[in-house]
Structure formats: C-alpha cells, structure tokens
Fold this protein.
Amino acid sequence: MTKLSWRLSRRSRLIDALKERIDPSGSARALKRSLESNGCRVNGRVERFASAQLEKGDLIEWAAIAQDKPIYTTLFEDEELLVLNKPVRSVCSDAFFQKALKKRVWLAHRLDKDTTGVLLFGKSPAVAKELQNLFEERAVEKEYLALVDGIPKKSSGIIRSHFIKKSSFEGQTIWGSNPVGTGLYAESSWELRTALSTQASLLSIKPKTGRTHQIRVHLSEMGHPILIDRQYASHFRSSLIAARPLLHASRLQFSWKGRQLLFEAPLPTDISTHL
C-alpha cells in the first residue's frame, strides 16, 4: 500500500489538495473511492468528504486502498453445521447469506458487516435455534483479535460495565457504558499480543457477554479504539490506514452433541500485513 503524508501550504478543499499532490491530470473518481474506503486522514481524523475545507498547516495522510471482492471460505461443513470465514462487507442476515452462498442456511449468531472471521450457521431453522440457545446460555467460548490505537500500559485486564444507548452515527446506534451502573451487563477480558512501533497493538479479546458493539465500546472506553472504527473514535494516534475497523473473530469453541468443536479463522491480510 502506497502511503503519503504532507502539510498543506494553503487553504484548500480536500479533493483539490489530493489531486494536486497525487494525480493533477487524472480523474477525481479514484480519489473519491479512496476517501469512501477510509483512505484519508486529516490531523488524525478519518475524512470521507471530498468537499471538506482544510486550512494551511493541516496534516494529510493518504493511502490508495483497493477493496477486493469478498471470498466466502468454508472452515467446516457437515449435515447440520456450516462454518465460514466471513469476509468484509457481508451483512449478517439469513437472506444475504442464502443468496451469496446459494444454500439454505440460518445464522446462529451475528458479526458486524465489516468484521471478518468465524461465522456459524445451522442448516435448518431448528439447528440454528439450538445453536442460538448456546450463545444465549454463554456456552460458546469466543475470541477476537483487534488492531487497536495506541499501546495499553497493562498486559491484560477485564472490563465490566452496563450498556445504554448514547447517540447515533450515520443511522446506527452508539452504545456506551452507564456510569450509574444500570443497563445491559457487558463483560470482556483482553490480553496484549503484540505492541507495534506504529503506535498500534494487537489485542486478544474474549467477550463473556454478547452485547451489540461490545468489543468496540469497551476498547474505545479504555482509550484504545479499534483501528479504523469511526463510530467510536474521531481521531487516531497510529498512522495505520485501513478500509474498515480491524476486528476479526478468530475462534469459536463449544460442545455439540457430545463433541467438543473448535473453529479458527486465520487473520486477514489487512491485519496480518501490519504485524
């Protein structure tokens, strides 16, 4: 990935500054696609609007990000279960996956649209319901890996809080912890795997509960939001640029009809290339 950074010598619209520095004679279309893929930051803030007005001295960081076609890799399949390594830009609905896979499958749980990794399905509504019950009973051990902003001072920890709806961002609910201790109980344990020279860290996170945006909220509130999670962070210390929040569902383990099942998904390249 080609990356550039520079400070503006005069007041300018963002798209004009990008064209002048990157491709004066070219079309603005490719630059706008890079903006839409989170490929530009201004003073540490991800900027997606080509018409944004910038000031002299503003720091621009830019990278051309190519978004590959999603590939659906099967990790396991038998007569009852299907386990995928979910790619980015995949909406977790039964209809979406039945169309994409051309199979009759039903989700046992959900991941955010741009979260990659282990995703479990039942091959009938009844099997899917049994699997969903395991998640509700907290009988499924989950592990995620995330590239986060900054380096934690501790090597591990446990975060416990109660979630409430705080606001909205681009049509989605923003969740947060309630300081008075009422709301939906959420608990996550985390461990530092790798500290990077780019002021980023690879963390392992094991959520005990399964609240919406739980990992994203807890990491943001501990001061180390997931790169590049625009919903829960406005600025980033690390210089790493990516098209999506770098969260990966790496592992699922549970007991199923007398068998202990363990499924693991390798890190995607947009995380592994930084390690």
In short: The longest helix spans residues 125-136. The chain has six helices and 17 strands. Residues 16 and 50 are 8 Å apart (CA to CA). The mean pLDDT is 92.
